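Student: I would love a firmer grasp of how sequence relates to backbone shape in proteins. Thank you; the sequence and its tokens follow:
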Amino acid sequence: MGRVPASDDFRRDVVKAYSGPLFATTFDFGVLWNKVDSVCNKILGWTDSPEFRGQTVIQQVVRAYTIVYRLVSAPCLDCPKLVRGTSAQQDTIGGGSEGTQALVVYYLLRETIRKRLSSVVTHRLKMSLTAEPPTLLQVYLTEWRTFIIAVNHLKVVFSYLHSPWQKHELPSEQPLLPTEVVALVQWSDIIMSPEICEGLAEQIFNLISRDRLHRLDEGSTSLVRDISHSLAMLNDPRHTAYSSLIEESYLVHLQRFYKENINVLKAGGILSYIERSLIIFEDEMERVNRILNKCTMLPMLQRLSDVLIDSEIPYIKSYLPTWILNDRGYFLNKMYQLLSKKFYRFVGA
């Protein structure tokens, strides 16, 4: 990435970069990027640096923003080339246009995020895999919150990278995704490995199963709910972490649990079955609202209807003529309440 001057020269160049006129000096790309990269690493690891707080953060973010502005607005010396293809057949992207320099900054930002996630966050999560549950969930949530706060600062640092002027000069096949999207994609690609996902799912469903038997305390409830919401943020056409990790398995567990207990529910007779089924619907709706993502509500109602209503229609229907003939209003009202649950998926819960 070009030469790196001696430390005094390096500091002078960096100061000029964020305080001098835009085109007064032509800077070495590597010198300026090294400073930005240093600030980015401090931002990404802000919880590890007690001194990186308050005014220090503001000053560093503003200076880094100014340097990024210069990196993408004015030609620099020794800007790295972007190439595509194999080492044998490489094609230079952009041909040295001004937009290529912005694209280099974009890819270097992505690489900085990847390095942090690969070397630090992944290590911490893997270490917690062998710890007592729900340590993995707690560590995941802590690292996620730290990361999201850091990304909000990085958005400021690289905001000028996404100005219309920069995008105008870019090669058409090289769009610049917003900083937060880049960060979330990197999190999905690096952090959500099969090993970590399996560990998360196991600990999540241990807590959900416990909740079905005995309501979780507020701490555990908050933990599952916050994990659910954090995973839902990773959902896009390529990444459906919440659906694949929690929702799909939750629906399978739900269906299996009530199928296995259907005879227990019917043991007290038809009225008891209907009343207990109504309670189950209310309990499961409350559970979704309390600890899962709202998008799970309609699929949950569908699965529960399949087990408690659709598959038991012959059983329920066999009592209907007698209740009508004997004017059993209370029984009919309860049956109507249960059958109406089938239509929640059309009108909302």
Notes: Strands lie at 83-85, 90-92. The mean pLDDT is 86. The domain at 245-344 is CATH 1.20.1310.10 (5 helical Cullin repeat like).
